[in-house]
Amino acid sequence: MESSSVMESSMDLWKPVGTVKIRVYKYNPRKDFAPGWKEYEIEVSRGTTILDALLRIKEETDPSLAFRYSCGQALCGSCAMMVNGRQMLICRTRVLEVAKGGKIELRPLDNFPIIRDLACDFKSFFDKHRAVKPWIIRKDVEELENPTGDYKQTIEEYARYYQFTDCLKCGACYSACPTVATDHEYLGPQALSQAYRYIVDTRDDGLEERIAVVDSDHGCWRCHFATSCSDVCPKYVDPAQGIQLLKKLILRSKLGFKPHKPAEVLPSKIGEVKRG
Amino acid sequence: MRESTKMLLHYVTALIIIVTGLIHLLANNDPNVGKLISSNTYLYLGNMAIFLAALLYHAFNGIRVILIELVPDKCWTKLIGWAILLIGVVTYIVGFQVLLMALGLI
């Protein structure tokens, strides 16, 4: 009896509860003279996400509708778009959660060039991310090539950058940033917070290389601390804080303070395995 | 000059403006401080010269930041930097001359 009621309530999640009008931005820069809007009416249940709705529209109504998605579980960051004017991941946003008066408006992310409809071009975004060298840079090449152990890192040292490792690169912060809106050369909150993430990592030696990139005309000093980036991050990362900490770190490094002590190498079996 | 140096100067000049501006206000309005500073022309001139330099740097750097954000272009950024520096130096020379004239030193 109990299990059947549980079954019923979970089935309720997918029982149609009404219809919602979805207004979608339609634009193909190669063909269309100007962008337009198209409205679709769709039956939804309590559990229907916006991604589910768009997939159904594409299957049943308009196969030409273009949008980007991949994992469907808020892990890849591919499906970020403007939902009722706010940056959101559509795979984890339920239609009924955001429908205002039975309507939803979808448009591509602000501050990105449009490829088609809701799909944006992320090239400059990823170029900027790559520019800050988002990988561990080491000077001890010998240890890297022939490791003798692990790099020691305490919980406190890990906690300094942990939140920034959650970044999905969905582009929501970049889209919400008012500086990016006017200064297209600005590195943006994502790249800058990732620069901070790698600089404070005790295993990293790339301070000078990254400072040369972020301490530039269109680097971290262009952040006016509007905090829109932190406000819209679907993973609750705080890029605005990362940028302020990065500024502090740059000023401290000018005074001769290093961001961290270099990580010691703790001998382990890794080296033996590699050499063996 | 790295951007961090320019911005560090921006913050430092903000503090200098507060301190020297306060001295200037007190020198002109508080009889005790006025006696101490205004009686010594060179002390007053020194304070005003520092105040003017800090104010001009802070203001023109602010304008430079706004302009390079509005037109993000490498050539433009360089051009703006040099143009602002030139305008700043000229304005400072003119301002300092006015100060000297006001104090009756020229």
Note the beta-strand portion of chain B: under 5%
Helix content of chain B: over 70%
What is the ordering of alpha helices and beta strands of chain A? HEEHEEHEEEHHEHHHHHHHEH
Share of helix of chain A, binned:
25-40%
If helices are DSSP runs of H or I spanning 4 or more residues, what is the number of helices of chain B?
Answer: 4
Structural class of chain A: alpha+beta
- Taking all Cα atoms into account, the compactness measure Rg of chain B is 16 Å
The strand count of chain B comes to: 0
- Average pLDDT confidence of chain A is 91
The main β sheet of chain B shows up as:
none
Task: Kindly describe this structure.
With 276 residues, chain A is an alpha+beta fold. Helix content of chain A is 38%, strand content 16%. Chain A has 13 helices and nine strands. Chain A has helices spanning 2-12, 50-61, 95-98, 123-131, 141-145, 155-159, 172-176, 178-182, 188-199, 207-214, 228-232, 239-254, 269-275; strands at 16-26, 36-45, 80-83, 86-89, 103-107, 114-116, 119-120, 149-151, 265-267. In chain A, β3 and β4 form a beta hairpin. In chain A, α4 runs parallel beside α9 (188-199). Chain A starts with a helix and ends with a helix. With 106 residues, chain B is an all-alpha fold. Chain B contains four helices and no strands. Chain B is elongated, with a radius of gyration of 16 Å. Classes of the chains: A alpha+beta (276), B mainly alpha (106).
